[in-house]
């Protein structure tokens, strides 16, 4: 006699597998929605998990547009989550260093928390004394965004936010749209657009903290980094660019050939001392508009490779120098100093006060448009 329980189990197993995997044995691409938590005022926050048919998975919350997890295989095909973060909303609501968040209205620092535009001085919150960092005390990373799913072969999530005139000191109502999507070649694509009704400044980025060995899996000092930049913007002791574009030749900032992050991170060098390691903007070598390769990072142990392509003129390499093990992240894991690196594509820090830097001004009638791809693969 046929085993009824066995047949039932088999059918159940097929149904489960069938919902996650397509006819050719490949995972189905798509979007899954789940509850992530509630804001203090009761507003529900959701988590949107995008999956492509290669099995890459990225989860994004509509609080801060936070990239909560990026799951990609290692050389052996074993999946691992390569970004630092928390299991639930509470972690992100507590004091933490912008894990995975969308940063705006102005990514990185504006010197002395002020800038002049059209002859008017605008004062900003000095939340990184004496400077303003990452859009102020309540930047875009702490806002609830409106989410719309974009179904189709490249699953995506559209997030919009209206930053009102005067918010955190910045002029103009700024309509911001960010679209996250997954490509079939395992890139997380981030497309930023913004429009304003008054002259303003804009510099949007994403603040994911990567560890290609898997979050919570040691430091990133052996990760090999290539940055496509002949020059960087040296900083003063408060991490504000001096205005110089300095050649990387013969400095710890020469990453034109792949170099382990740890090799020169504590070099006897004033710039390294100011940053307590790497916390610097690189001037990307560009040959024209469009996406171009900015950086490539390889973890020799797991074999995971991250390539960053962007339309932006700069990239901030930050090596988690201010992480100190006091934060407990996913699964209660501790994140010690230099247990992650950030590659924040951007316009140069303090551009509103540096007329020689590429402009960050946005005027009514114009559209701010930037795109960045974080593409994952493995090395042999
Ligand atoms: C900055 C660092 C800062 C970190 C976290 C980076 O973009 O350059 O100085 O500590 O963000 O806020």
Give an overview in words:
There is one protein chain. By secondary structure, this protein is mainly β. Helices cover 7% and strands 37% of the residues. It contains three helices and 27 strands. It has helices at residues 4-20, 89-93, 270-275; strands at residues 30-38, 44-51, 57-61, 67-73, 79-81, 101-103, 109-110, 114-117, 120-123, 132-133, 146-150, 156-163, 174-182, 187-196, 200-201, 205-207, 224-227, 229-233, 246-247, 259-260, 279-284, 292-298, 304-310, 314-318, 342-346, 361-362, 368-378. It has a nine-stranded antiparallel beta sheet with strand order 11-12-13-14-27-23-22-17-20, with no helix packed on it. The chain has a five-stranded antiparallel beta sheet with strand order 1-2-3-4-5, with no helix packed on it. A hairpin with a 4-residue loop joins strand 13 and strand 14 (187-196). The longest helix has 17 residues, at 4-20. The radius of gyration is 21 Å and the shape is globular. It binds beta-D-glucopyranose. Beta-D-glucopyranose binds at residues 97-98, 108, 239, 279, 316, 318, 322, 344.
């Amino acid at each position: 006699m046929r085993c009824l329980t066995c047949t039932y189990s088999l059918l159940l197993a097929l149904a489960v597998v069938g919902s996650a995997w397509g006819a050719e044995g490949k995972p189905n691409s798509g979007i899954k929605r789940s509850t992530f938590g509630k804001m203090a005022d009761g507003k529900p926050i959701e988590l949107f998990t995008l999956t492509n048919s290669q099995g890459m998975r990225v989860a994004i919350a509509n609080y801060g547009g936070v990239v909560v997890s990026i799951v990609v295989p290692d050389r052996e095909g074993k999946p691992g989550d390569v970004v630092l973060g928390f299991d639930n909303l509470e972690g992100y609501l507590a004091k933490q260093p912008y894990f995975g968040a969308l940063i705006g209205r102005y990514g990185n620092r504006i010197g002395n928390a002020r800038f002049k535009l059209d002859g008017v001085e605008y004062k900003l919150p000095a939340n990184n004394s004496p400077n303003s960092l990452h859009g102020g005390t309540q930047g875009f990373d702490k806002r609830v965004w409106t989410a719309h799913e974009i179904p189709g072969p490249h699953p995506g999530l559209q997030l919009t936010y209206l930053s009102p005139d005067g918010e955190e000191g910045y002029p103009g109502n700024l309509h911001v749209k960010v679209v996250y999507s997954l490509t079939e070649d395992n890139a997380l694509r981030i497309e930023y657009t913004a429009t304003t009704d008054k002259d303003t400044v804009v510099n949007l980025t994403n603040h994911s903290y990567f560890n290609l060995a898997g979050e919570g899996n040691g430091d990133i000092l052996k990760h090999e980094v290539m940055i496509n930049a002949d020059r960087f913007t040296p900083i003063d002791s408060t991490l504000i660019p001096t205005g110089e574009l300095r050649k990387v030749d013969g400095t710890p900032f020469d990453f034109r050939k792949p170099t382990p992050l740890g090799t020169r991170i504590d070099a006897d060098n004033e710039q390294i001392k100011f940053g307590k390691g790497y916390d610097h903007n690189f001037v990307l070598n560009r040959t024209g508009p469009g996406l171009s390769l900015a950086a490539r990072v390889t973890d020799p142990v797991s074999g995971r490779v991250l390539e960053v392509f962007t339309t932006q003129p700069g990239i901030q390499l930050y090596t988690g120098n201010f992480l100190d093990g006091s934060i407990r992240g996913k699964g209660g894991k501790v994140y010690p100093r230099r247990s992650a690196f950030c590659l924040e594509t951007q316009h140069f820090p303090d551009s509103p006060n540096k007329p020689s830097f590429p402009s960050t001004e946005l005027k009514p009638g114009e559209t701010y448009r930037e795109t960045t791809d974080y593409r994952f693969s493995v090395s042999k």
